[in-house]
Amino acid sequence: MYDPKLLKFPTSQSYHFILYASMATLKTKLFLLYLLSTSFDLQHNKMYDTDEYGHRLQIFTENKRIIDHHNAGNHSFKMGLNKFSDMKFEEFRKFFLLTEPQNCSATKGSHVSKTGPYPEFVDWRLKGNFVSPVKNQGYCGSCWAFSTTGCLESVNAITIGKLILLSEQQLIDCSRDFKNHGCLGGVPSQAFEYIKYNKGLMTEEDYPYKGHDATCHFEPALAAVYVLDVVNITRYDEKAMVDAVAWLNPVTFSFDVMADFMHYKEGVYTSTQCKNTADRVNHAVLAVGYGTEENGMPYWIVKNSWGTDWGMDGYFLIERGKNMCGLATCSTYPLCTV
C-alpha cells in the first residue's frame, strides 16, 4: 500500500550531486560529439568559419541521431557517418542528384533476352579487368555522365580486351543537343546516342574532368571509343536487366534517391518512401552484378560515382526483383565497334 512517509525528496546536497552528474553527462556527450565532429572535419577536409561551424554541427548532430536510430532497428542495410553527414538532404539533392526532369524510359526496348536459367551470382569485377575504378563526380549533378562512361568502359573492355578510362567532361560539355543538361542532369541513353552520332568519345586523360559546365572542345582525331548502337531495356522489365548483366555486360539504370540513401554504409538498400516511376528517378548508376543474401533477399551490385569513401568502397547493394525505387524504369547499355 502507498505510504506518503516513504516518499523521500533529495536533500540539498544530493540534489546538487544529481544536477552536477546530469551536467557532467551532458558535457561528456557534447565533448564526445565535438571530438566526433572534429574527427569528421579532419577526415573529410571540412573547413568552416565560426558561424558556419555551429550550423553544420547542428546538422551533423541530427544526422547522427537519424543514423543511430536506423541502426538500432531491424533493417537490411546499415547507415554510417560519411562526407555528407554535415549536409541536409535538400543541399545534397541540389549538388549530387539530377535536378532537371528526365524522360528516360523505353516503353518498348530493343534488348532481346536469352532463355534461362541464369547464374545465381554475377560480378563483372571478378571476371577480369572489365570494370573501371570508382570515380567521384564532386559537386556536380553529373551522375548520368559517370554511369554512361562506366558502362561504355566495361562494354568496350569486354569487346576489345582493354579497359580505357573515358571522358565524363566531354559528355557534360558537348551533349546538350541530345537533351542533356551538364551538371543539372542528363540521361545515359541520350549520352550513348550523342557518342554514336558524334563519332566517338575521348579519354579521361585527353579530356579531363572539371566538375562544372564548360565549353565543348571535342577533338574527333582523339576519339578513343565508338558506339555502334544503343540498347534500351523495356520499362519495368527487371528480368531483362538480369539477362543483360548475366550474359552480356554491366548496364546503367536510374532510381529515386531518398534522404536515407546518402547515409548508406553497407547491406541491401530498400525503401518504402521512394517512388518507382520514370518521372521520379534522380540518380544514374551502373549495375555490375547481382546475387542473393543468405536470408533469400535478391540484390543488385551497383557502382556509384561518389568516391570510394562512400558506401562499400563506392559500391552499394539494392533489392532486386521489385523495381525498387524505379530502378527498372530507365536501363540501357551500348554496343561498341571492334
Automatic annotation (TrEMBL):
Ranges that cross the membrane: none
Keywords, comma-separated and alphabetical: Disulfide bond, Hydrolase, Protease, Thiol protease, Zymogen
A Gene Ontology BP annotation from the UniProt entry: proteolysis
UniProt xrefs under SMART domains: Inhibitor_I29 (SM00848), Pept_C1 (SM00645)
PROSITE patterns: THIOL_PROTEASE_ASN (PS00640), THIOL_PROTEASE_CYS (PS00139), THIOL_PROTEASE_HIS (PS00639)
Residue span(s) of domain Peptidase C1A papain C-terminal: 118-335
Pfam families (alphabetical): Inhibitor_I29, Peptidase_C1
One Gene Ontology MF term: cysteine-type peptidase activity
Domain Cathepsin propeptide inhibitor: 38-92
Residue ranges that the Swiss-Prot or TrEMBL entry lists as coiled coil: none
Top-level taxonomic group: Eukaryota
Keyword Disulfide bond among record annotations: yes
Similarity-based family: Belongs to the peptidase C1 family.
Name the record gives this protein: Pro-cathepsin H-like
Organism: Mastacembelus armatus (zig-zag eel)
